[in-house]
Amino acid sequence: MAPQTKRVTINDVKEMKSRGEKITMITAYDYATAKMVDKAGIPLILVGDSLGMAVLGYENTLPVTMDVMIHHCKAVVRGSEHALIVGDMPFMSYHVSTEDALRNAGRFIQEAGTQAVKLEGGVTVADKVKRIVECGIPVMGHIGLTPQSVNQLGGHLVQGKKLDVAEKLLDDAKALEQAGAFAVVLEAVPARLAALVTQQVGIPTIGIGAGATCDGQVQVIYDTLGLSDFLPKHAKQYAKLAEIMEQALKTYLDEVKAGTFPTKDNSYIIDNSVLDAVKANLK
Ligand code: KIV
């Protein structure tokens, strides 16, 4: 009998698009958060290289390495049971050669246990996407604002307002579909252009700052939960966890200082006889 997978599969994602059911994806970077995302019933988790900023405090995603990504992906896989986990291929892990791209995509599946990988770029990476898919590894594309090219783009800027870039976006989406990608992230793209791309390709489009017409949405969890220093225009805070956490930590500090924590309830007991014996043996 074939083993049953409890996880969402790329076929489920494709079916969601056919049914017109919106696809929700969010980032997670660790075991505890992955558990919460899974419990909330969100079907796709992206272990994004945005962890470079969100978790590690870098200025951008460029310093993130394969080993760091594998480390975090493993934790997310351990924390989740149902979501399809997409591992984000970091800067320079698929740029040098197709061999490199394949080897590193394979590490996400074999070492970390993710079910898919994501990489940035369209026409220029299509050959690599094709080879990775041919090896049985599902690939999610990522076009529009591609943060690994921040220096080339001149900043984290909206992409596709001008004719040449808008047309390139369409070409990139089509190239990814042809190469076998199962979905494509559209980041920071004008909403009506994203709607056109969504209409022009058969694979699901997952937007972040790309309007409501995309087949799905992805968000960075630190933005969504109110844990980031800066909230981008495309994000919405569904909670203010930083405030709640800071308040809790101040209360902890106050209670330790005041001696009201720990109480008896937080302490362990020892038999009088044992303690008396220890005291009697004091030198
Ligand atoms: O790294 C990430 O979190 C991403 C999303 C912004 C799509 O690539």
Walk me through the structure.
The longest helix is centred in the last third of the chain and has 18 residues, at 241-258. The protein has 2 domains: 10-239, Phosphoenolpyruvate-binding domains (TIM Barrel, Alpha-Beta Barrel), CATH 3.20.20.60; 244-281, no CATH class. Strands 1-2-3-4-5-6-7-8 form an 8-stranded parallel barrel, surrounded by 7 helices. It contains 12 helices and 8 strands. It is elongated, with a radius of gyration of 23 Å. α6 packs parallel to α8 (163-179) and α8 packs parallel to α9 (191-200). It has helices at 10-19, 31-40, 51-54, 66-79, 98-112, 126-134, 150-153, 163-179, 191-200, 221-224, 241-258, 272-280; strands spanning 23-27, 44-47, 84-88, 116-118, 139-144, 183-187, 205-208, 216-219. It is an alpha/beta fold and 283 residues long. 44% of the residues lie in helices and 13% in strands.
Short structural summary:
With about 280 residues, this protein is of the alpha/beta class. The chain is built from 12 helices and 8 strands.
Structural topology:
Blueprint: H1 10-19, E1 23-27, H2 31-40, E2 44-47, H3 51-54, H4 66-79, E3 84-88, H5 98-112, E4 116-118, H6 126-134, E5 139-144, H7 150-153, H8 163-179, E6 183-187, H9 191-200, E7 205-208, E8 216-219, H10 221-224, H11 241-258, H12 272-280
Parallel strand pairs: 1-2, 1-8, 2-3, 3-4, 4-5, 5-6, 6-7, 7-8
The structure holds 3-methyl-2-oxobutanoic acid.
The site of 3-methyl-2-oxobutanoic acid (KIV) has 12 residues, from strand 6.
